[in-house]
Queue: 4 jobs
Job 1
Amino acid sequence: AWPVLAVVGRPNVGKSTLVNRILGRREAVVEDMPGVTRDRVSYPAEWAGRRFTLVDTGGWEVDVAGIEARVAQQAEVAIALADAVLFVVDATVGATDTDEQVVRLLRRAGKPVVLCANKVDGPAGEADAAALWALGLGEPFPVSALHGRGTGDLLEAAVDAL
Ligand code: GDP
Ligand code: MG
């Protein structure tokens, strides 16, 4: 079996967009709005000659308990099954309480984590990315999953972590 790289993060941060970017095709469903219910989806992937299973934590069910508990639950399962985790944060929003919640799960799980500071579409966003050092997960990789900016460095670090 190939090593497993799980993509986790809050709804709408660009996880599926990043998955499509890595796959080189539009396979994962990208939504403009959070809260679409989908299962975790696995894809065979390859980067720089390294094969791995890429897991998109597809969607989150909004219920009366709120979206945040569901995010944590989904993330926990994906993290448990992964060899390494690609944690995606929306750098334009910055770290939210939900992001901090996932960080705690990641610490507990003890899996290698690569931090993707997504939606850095241009140089002006670099400062937003740097602010994510505060999460304590090491270097934030500034990325635009939408345009492909920075994905090479991110994926190099991710496959190194597997
Ligand atoms: P997910 O819920 O985390 O899987 O997020 P999606 O991949 O479905 O993306 C949510 C929204 O963010 C969509 O409208 C995407 O087009 C947008 N998005 C994703 N990545 C980027 C990015 O790098 N830059 C910008 N500007 N928008 C992005
Ligand atoms: Mg998605």
Note: Residues 67-81 form the longest helix (15 residues).
Job 2
Amino acid sequence: RKELKVSPSIAAGNLLKLEEEVRKLEHSGADSIHFDVMDGHFVPLLTIGIPFIEQMRKITKMHLDVHIMVTNPDSTFENYLSAGADTLSFHIETALHPHRICSKIKETGKRAGIVLNPSTHWKDIEYLLPVLDQVTLMTVNPGFSRQAHIPLVHKKILELSKYRSENNLKFDIMVDGGVSHENANTLNKLGVDIVVAGGAVFNFENYKEAIVKIKSASIT
Ligand code: DX5
Ligand code: ZN
């Protein structure tokens, strides 16, 4: 297998120095910037949202991978597209008409993704898999960075990646929550393509070193 791609979760960085964080990530070997949006309802915290994405879009060409943890994606998802998201992922637990949201995301030429909480079965989105560009499996209960990875989700990762190869589907599998150089190899072997990294990047001075450590661990 190839090395894992790494998408640092910028909300785990220094929120008072976002431009500096973006510049550091541009030179870090990161494959995209993961942007977590929390609404204070679906998850307890309220963090940064649409206006931040708009401003970030103006200062960088990096791929913006936006993960919305909000209760009402049906009525709000379009704002994230016009703000400049390249990939937009919403939680299946919150969506009333997920197929409609995905179709509209794809109509704008952006990548469509769905996120599953640890407790949600992948079969819930089986019918949607052919139109998805990315499926994110949460390996923590969403809401906070630096929580412990939940290995109980690994069985689901393996089932989904087997289903993907058996059906010749093309979506990327992303894992979000408690990823580090310690579990990168296991995740890669399970069929994961991209990992989100909060603490595993932003707890360190040198982001490039931290990312290399995850990537090289994933193939050794
Ligand atoms: C969890 C967020 C994650 C988080 C990852 O609610 O979706 O993206 O910031 O942080 P770590 O890697 O520290 O678990
Ligand atoms: Zn996330």
Note: The chain has a mean pLDDT of 98.
Job 3
Amino acid sequence: MSTPLLIQALQGQTLSRPPVWFMRQAGRYLPEYRELRAKAPDFIAFCLNPEMAAEATLQPMRRFGFDAAIVFADILLIPGALGQKVWFEAGEGPRLGALPSVQSMADKAQQAGEALKAVGQTLSLVRAELEPERALIGFAGAPWTVATYMLDGEHRTMGKGERAAARTYAYTQPEVVYGLLDVLVEATAHYLKMQQDAGAQVLKIFESWAEGLPDDLFESLVLKPHQKLVARARELGVTVPLIGFPRGSAALAERYARECDVQGVALDTACPLDVGQRVQKIKPIQGALDPLLLRAGGDALDRRVDQLMEAWGQGPWIFNLGHGILPDVPIAHVEQVLKRIGAQ
Ligand code: CP3
């Protein structure tokens, strides 16, 4: 059985073409997803229904034959497992209830994998259907990103790029924030281990809100918790490759690559090509086509794919977007990219 291309890239191999998958590849731009989703109005219940979540995971695989499937779930399942209420307002995104005490969450952290074993069942169902040459990715939100949603709860600043409430807490109530991050490290490590046991071959850590941090906070809110999470996951028996995604870390991406013991670093849309090349000298990279260009299509899309291939195709690289696919992306544009790369 040949090793999936995604895993070969994460082992540091330069391949004749990069493996390709897209963040949020399951989702509303697919008519079959919208149809399935309509059957389960509650998004969290949908994520925790293994049959439905496995179907959503497999839909883009059937249609496009991506090199990897990412389990259909959400980073906000963890707050639920720790006893914080989470729900989605239609058209508005996530809402979270009052933050439970750090102690009560700490008491639940080691059970997080068990509490979310529905996600493990999804992974097992998908693995049974997926061809061996396609990799299966599990994931979790990074501690800081999950904490921004948990702390923001009632402030409703979500969607505003600065994560103002959460970052202000880091200055005014550091004991709450750093206590919460430690609980999230523990819970997430157990959650990742459960996903590996259920069939995940690669695990991705989504730090969607690494942007806008001064470097001392980048160190304490992003880098240190990632280091702790990786160490704790390894201690619990996680052996599969990890991809870290410090989105918006800009000039700090190289430092992240050097100091965090993940096997791959996912870069965001704004990462310059030469910075990507420098990170690539340290470890395999993933990224970073602009989701807006995927939506726009046309010659500009082909040209940028060619540019990325030229700049990053000489080293270990996983082709992906710089952030999640948008709900109104034409399917033909996804196919155009796959053809251009030689993946379809
Ligand atoms: O990539 C995939 O196909 C796997 C599934 C996946 C989802 N969310 C499904 C989802 C993954 C990997 C995520 C991660 C996630 N969730 C992140 C990190 C990645 C990123 O985009 O930065 C974050 C920040 C979240 C939290 C979240 N979930 C938000 C802010 C929203 C609302 C925004 C929106 O697009 O509506 C969600 C909902 C969500 N998660 C949807 C999907 C397909 C859309 C909900 C729907 O179908 O109604």
Note: The chain is about 50% helix and 10% strand.
Job 4
Amino acid sequence: MDSKQPLRITRRRFMTSSAAVLAASSFAPETWASTGQAVASRGPFRVIVDTDPGVDDALALLLAMRSPELKIEAITPVAGNVPLELTLPNALRLVEIAGRTDIPVAAGAKAPLVRRLVTATYAHGENGLGGAVFPDPTTKPVAEPAAEYIRRVVRKYPHEVTLITLGPLTNVAAALNADPELAGLVRGLTMMGGSLSGGNITPAAEFNVYVDPEAARIVFQSGIPITMVGLDVTRKTSLTDEHVRVLEAAQNPVSQAAAKIGRNAINHNRERGFLVGPNMHDSLAVAAFLDPTILKWQEYYVDVETTGELTAGETLGYSPVAGDLKRRPGAEKEAGAASMSIRGSAPTLASTKTSPVVRDKYGPNTNVGVDVNSARFFELLIGRLAGK
Ligand code: BDR
Ligand code: CA
């Protein structure tokens, strides 16, 4: 077994801190949580939104800024969909559109930890907002860089801050690298990222994890209780003409901006020959934090492939109840978990490793969204953006 095992997250911390538990005290994996409190009666929760706007980031940010349950301590743009030179002003534009210049915006990383930046202008356009043009922002970012800002806010409010990440995880990993105690002080992390059912930028990897797999691995192995809203569920959300019509009809700056971005995104999707979409990946992550009962959840130990020639950025979900060899109900989970190790690739002849086991015992680190009630999600998203 590898002597350097990833940090083990305690079951207690995992269960008490996950976003799903926050909303549904009788949280039960593999079922629609049915006892969620009314959304607006919860919170306020301190959050930092880390993001790479980004068409769907833009709608997610507007949703977050229109949600009274959230006390947004900072928005921390990172390079991803487009370079930081665009994600930063896009974030500033969005706080101005939402009338939320009270929220500090701290500039993040220009490049992944150890890789060259790969962007997604094919999906988000050259300006990151799908070609939708808004005035240049006059608001300035704070002087502190994002990683330092994240560190300072988490330390100021120990065990209170949830990180909502909508882009590559570079800023968060940099903060964790700079401060080894930080992970233990973060309340939780809800991410749009990853997939247990194939990728979107390669057959293996989802874009946010693909761009900075090393950062993602640091985050998954940090011990922070993670809620993963990946392609498994975000692919089931499609913005439609009808959604945009509702936004267009609502006469307020947020709904008008969202409608403009949404309309462009739908047209762009059609031009590329897609019959459905665009998917509202990032808004679903924000919605999942606001109301976890919109999704079904299943716990996994998730790790990230970082060395594959074709598969870097793939997220692997280990679960004692996955697979074909079912045990009898009830005994299944306990027996499976007790006997399950985390197994990696077979050692090569050239390596010093002798065992494929990278971790001797299973323990979950992530609640993974495995299904979504898309209609309820859009009720929340469009309702809030329209200002209802
Ligand atoms: C994710 O990648 C980005 O292109 C989107 O903004 C979203 O965060 C989906 O894979
Ligand atoms: Ca994004």
Note: The pocket of beta-D-ribofuranose (ligand 1) is lined by residues 54, 56-57, 81, 120, 123, 166-167, 192, 200, 206-208, 281-282 (CB under 6 Å).
